Amino acid sequence: MPVVGPKKTGPNRAVRLIIALAVFGAILGAFVHYWDKSPTAVSIARNAAKRVPPSEGKDVYDEFCAYCHGFNLDGKSEWFNKTDKDPAQSPRMDDQGIAWRMPDTLLFSITKNGGQKHALPGIKSEMPAFEGVVSDKEINMALDYIKSRWPEDLRAHQKAVSKGKKPADPRHLELK
């Protein structure tokens, strides 16, 4: 007479549950890792909660930005040149510049991915990409420092542009 009992077809239920949880954890970990590194409005907003006082961004700005954009955020006097022969120089970052007319997502992307990705047709940008050089948090720290140097009315304008309540200046760079 044949022996009747449970079939032995593979791992028991507890082992299958552990394997399923491990696979789920690996997928979730990969998603979180990618999500945290993408320069989306969501990740920028999430990083805003982790920001430090703007004065701490001065060290990041001084180390990575000031050589081109000036220690007083005054950039180069003839920064905008419309030929490939003479690339666009570093614009002012102060209240006389154009940064306050751009949304946070564009400022972040230009800093992380470089200026050429966002340059108008026929314009050559020498703005390097800082991805892998500084962290997203450090980019936000430097941008917060720059914005802290603008008058209140320009900070309010730039904040409204970032929230979509005012249009960005179309004469300048576009977010691609």
Q: How many helices in DSSP terms?
A: 7
Averaged pLDDT: 75
Uncertain residue ranges: 33-49, 172-176
Overall number of strands: 0
CA-atom Rg in angstroms: 24 Å
What is the name of the CATH topology of one domain? Cytochrome Bc1 Complex, Chain D, domain 2
What is the succession of H and E elements?
Answer: HHHHHHH
CATH superfamily of one domain: Cytochrome c-like domain
Task: Describe this structure in a few short sentences.
By secondary structure, the chain is mainly alpha-helical.
Task: Give an overview in words.
With 176 residues, this protein is an all-alpha fold. 47% of the residues lie in helices and 0% in strands. It has a domain at 41-162: Cytochrome c-like domain (Cytochrome Bc1 Complex, Chain D, domain 2).
List the helices and strands and how they pair.
Blueprint: H1 13-37, H2 41-48, H3 54-64, H4 66-69, H5 104-113, H6 136-148, H7 152-162
Helix pairs in contact: 3-6, 5-6
Supply the key terms:
176 residues, mainly alpha, 47% helix, Cytochrome Bc1 Complex, Chain D, domain 2, disordered C terminus
